[in-house]
Amino acid sequence: MNTVIIFICIILIASILQTSTGFGFSIMATPFLLLIFLPQEAIQINLILSLLISLSLIYKIRKEIDYPLLKRFIIGSIAGVPFGSLVFMSINVDHLKFIVSVIILVLTLFMMVNLKIKTTPFRDYLVGGLSGVLTTSIGMPGPPLLLYFTGTDTGKEKVRATTLAFYLFIYLISLGTQVVTVGTNMTVWKSSLYAIPLVILGLVLGQFLFKWFNQRVFRIFTYVLLISTGVYLLIDSL
């Protein structure tokens, strides 16, 4: 019963964050799903549900997508996906979570002191590549995108739309790669099926919250989300 309650809370809160910010599901769900599932199961459940969320939202926000930027992210991620698969199959998950937590915390600190990042095509490709690596390795493409968008002071509408469009591609590719390279099981698909009503509820609540977020609140919320995730991953990996 405790496991069921934890699962419900994780999926519902993460769905709300994903819909209202464009980032929250993978950053919120993956670390906490690892508390009740095996790493392979937690990552694949995250990929499936994140893909469903992106599919459900993409038509409504399609006009806000930065398509040239999206193209560069996708090209970069294609190069990163195979490396992420190798990482997942060969590196201890705890070591990987430690590295990611340190990166998140350090870069978030840079963002909080108003470190500015100038967008360039090369950096767009690099961010896409890092997201590809993190998606297939630990199911979390969000941190590189979130930090990059924050540093470039991108508007929240463009952030959410471009990110969700990118997720639509990277989650589909990553899920296929995971299934082919490490396999899957019924626990993944049954748990994902049970979570769909929670995701739908989170979509509705998240859309409502998005209307009330101004740019300043959006930025503060981003910091809180990153720091919380970084601290959790760090503690969990030690």
From TrEMBL:
Q: Name one Pfam family in it.
A: TauE
- Signal sequence span is none
Transmembrane intervals: 43-61, 73-92, 98-115, 164-186, 192-210, 217-235
UniProt entry tagged with the keyword Membrane: yes
Q: How does this protein sit in the membrane? A: Multi-pass membrane protein
Q: Which InterPro entries match?
A: TM_pro_TauE-like (IPR002781), TSUP (IPR052017)
Q: Which keywords does this chain's UniProt record carry?
A: Cell membrane, Membrane, Transmembrane, Transmembrane helix, Transport
Spell out the coiled coil positions from the record. none
Q: What is its main location?
A: membrane
Compartments, record wording: Cell membrane
What is the superkingdom listed in this entry's lineage? Bacteria
Record's family?
Belongs to the 4-toluene sulfonate uptake permease (TSUP) (TC 2.A.102) family.
Name the record gives this protein: Probable membrane transporter protein
